[in-house]
Design brief:
Helix content is about 75%, strand content about 0%. The protein is mainly alpha-helical. α2 packs antiparallel against α10, α4 (about 55-80) packs antiparallel against α9 and α6 packs antiparallel against α14 (about 270-290). The longest helix has 26 residues, at about 150-175.
Length: about 375
Amino acid sequence: MQFCDAQFADALPPLSCSIVFNFVYWPLVAVVAFDRREASTCARLSADIAYLRTRRGVVKILAIGVCNSLNGLLQVYASSTTRVPGALQPILLQSTLLFTVVGSKLFLRKAYSKGQLGAVALVAVGVATALAPFLAELAKGGASTQLQSGPLWPLVLVLGCAPNAAMVLVQESLFDDVPAFSVPFLLGLTSLVQAVVVGLLFWTDLVPSFGTSADASVFGSHLTGGFECFFAPASSANPARCGLCAPLGLVFVFSYAAAYFFGGKVTQHASANLQSLLATLGFFMQIYFWLALPTVNAWAGGKSYSTLEIATTSVALLPIGGGTFLFRWCEPSTARERALHNVAADGAAPEGGRLTNTLLTINEEGRP
C-alpha cells in the first residue's frame, strides 16, 4: 500500500490499485485458465465453477473479497503519519498474526501443540527484537510518536488487520471444501469483488475527518489525475514524478499477484497460520528491498533506516524464521493435504470425481 498511497496521491488508493490490477491481471487469467488445450486445467476449472454455483462457494468468495477491500480501506486511511505515528505503525500491524492464530482456534477449531505454541512464542521474541527501536522511540515520547489526530486512528489501524486475518481464514476454509481450487482463479475473482466493493465505498473518501477529499469534484480530480499519471504521465500535472508511475505500477501489480499467489498456495497446502507467519517474516525482510533501492524509497515517501533498525531487524529474522519453520514442522497433516497429495499423484480430478468426494468427506468431519 505504500506504493498506492504515494502513487495516486490523494485519490482513493485501493480503488485505483484494484482497477489497475484487474485491468492487467484478468487477461493473464484468461490465457492460463481458459486454455482448452490443457485437459487438467479444464477439469479443475470445471470443479471450481461447480463449487461457485453453490451458495457456500458464493458466500466464501464474496467474504474474501469484502475482507480484502476492508483491510485496504482501513489501513490506507489510517496509514498517514499524521493519524498514526510512524513509530507506532509497525507495532500495530503485527496484530494480524494475533488475529489469525486466535481466529483459527475459534472459527476453524484448530488445536495447537506445545511445539506450535513454542514456535509462535519464538516468533514473538523475534518481532519484539525487530520492533525494539520503535518501542524505544515510543518510550522517549518524541514528536514522531505523538497522536496528532487523537487515539481512535491507531485503533482503526488495528481493526484493519482483522479483515486481513479473516480473509486468509476464509481462504483456508474454502480450500477445505475444494482442496485443489485454482489459486490464480481465486485471486482473480476475489480481486474483482474487492474492486467492486471499494468502488461502492467510494463515499468513505468524502467523510469529513476520515477521507481525503473535500467533495465529489475533488475526489473525481484525484482519481482521474491518478490514472492520467499512470497512463499519460507526459500530460499530467507533474510529469517528472509521474514518469515512474507506470513502470512501478506494473511492478506493484506483478508483486501483488506473486505475493497473493504464494500466500494462497501456502494456505492451500498448509494453513492460514503459516501464511501469516511467513507474512510477518516478509514484513521485516522488506527493509533490504528499500535499502537496495534508496531512490525508489525516497520517491515513494518512505523513511530512511538507522543502523540500529537494520541491526535489530537482521537479528530478529533468525527467531522469526526459526519459529516459522518449527510451527510448520509441528503442524499435523490434514484431510486437505492428503487430498492434494492424492490429486498430485493421480492427476487432475474429473468433474464430479475425486474433488467432490473430498469435499463431502471433509464436510462430514465438521470443518466450517
